[in-house]
Amino acid sequence: xxxxxxxxxxxxxxxxxxxxxxxxxxxxxxxxxxxxxxxxxxxxxxxxxxxxxxxxxxxxxxxxxxxxxxxxxxxxxxxxxxxxxxxxxxxxxxxxxxxxxxxxxxxxxxxxxxxxxxxxxxxxxxxxxxxxxxxxxxxxxxxxxxxxxxxxxxxxxxxxxxxxxxxxxxxxxxxxxxxxxxxxxxxxxxxxxxxxxxxxxxxxxxxxxxxxxxxxxxxxxxxxxxxxxxxxxxxxxxxxxxxxxxxxxxxxxxxxxxxxxxxxxxxxxxxxxxxxxxxxxxxxxxxxxxxxxxxxxxxxx
Length: 301
Fold this sequence. Notes:
- The protein is mainly alpha-helical.
- It is built from 11 helices and 5 strands; from the N terminus they run ααααββββαααααβαα.
- It has 2 domains: 1-79 and 275-301, no CATH class; 111-270, no CATH class.
- Strands 1-2-4-3-5 form a 5-stranded mixed sheet, with helices on both faces.
- The chain crosses the membrane at residues 6-24, 36-62, 82-106, 277-299.
């Protein structure tokens, strides 16, 4: 029963940690570390919550989760009705989470495949933006279609008319950063979790926080090659132009919502990177959060 209590405490702590992190602003100073923390919290919550149910269900064996699962195929007589109910709930929750993640991957992959087929018909190359696809649309649009070997950066004709060459170069650097760091894979588990728990406000806030952090991370990568002011002015122009919603399965330059745009512009104009000690502590916390729950599966208790 000790294992169930420990895993239950970790599960509750990850929920509390997610609530705190969703309102934190220090994360904007080091988005890469904050993204790692979010991933660790999400993984730990799933593993700990399922583990709590399994640890309680398999407690009569006295061998912990891993040992109990090995004995489960033989004699189930030590398990009472409550233990069997917890076992079914834990296995069911694991199946739902993995199933919804798999479905999200399938749906996104299908949307990207269809969009690539559409781009092959309606897009063209432009010498002004080498390596980029241009779509003849008057609205402002800039996004990347992620992929292992076929990532594409797309801009609209309206974007070419809206931005000056320096701003356009900064936007393209931002989108290429999304593609290189595969930020789409960061978002998938959180988007899947929102599908499982659509009515829970915290889940939506978690996804919003991670979406903003990956935009800030792409901003930081773009700033390595272009001055931050160029990307900041491009963001403001985009927001004023009211860009259309990006196609499903893509990562766009950003929304027209005022708060995220102003937060990104502020940090681009006045960078304030986190102290190295904060980054090191954040990474150490992410590793600890992610590693401890699986270890409790293996330990007898």
